């Protein structure tokens, strides 16, 4: 690892096994130092973020990659709960979804999503987008420090 390179914790919230595997592979190929944890729905995401049940030893993510359309609890509900929780509302969230509906985009930004990205269908473009997201959040952005409460 380079001297000035930081390691960030990423929580990937994605119900599609294929999309999750592709995202993990793209992040790995990006050669940035990330620890990526994957959960398959919004309920598990909230349990992870609150360190409940199987996730009591989970690390606090520096960044969340969030799908919108998932079973049990969708990404919109995850955003709502996060933004109403003092300990979670500062964690940056990148919505990464197949939906290009104006309603979903407006609602996500209204719930304080930091970015909204429509997943490219082309595999090469998908890898490029994921790597750019990772580069932006690891190399360019100042992430909020962990809370000390």
Automatic annotation (TrEMBL):
GO terms for biological process: phosphorelay signal transduction system. Signal peptide: none annotated. PROSITE patterns: RESPONSE_REGULATORY (PS50110). Keywords: Phosphoprotein. SMART domains: REC (SM00448). SUPFAM superfamilies: CheY-like (SSF52172). It holds the Pfam family Response_reg. The keyword Phosphoprotein applies. The modification 4-aspartylphosphate is found at residue 67. The keyword Phosphoprotein applies. Residues 9-134 form the Response regulatory domain. PANTHER family: RESPONSE REGULATOR RCP1 (PTHR44520:SF2), RESPONSE REGULATOR RCP1-RELATED (PTHR44520). This is Response regulator rcp1. It comes from Fuerstiella marisgermanici. The lineage of its organism: Bacteria, Pseudomonadati, Planctomycetota, Planctomycetia, Planctomycetales. The gene is rcp1_3.
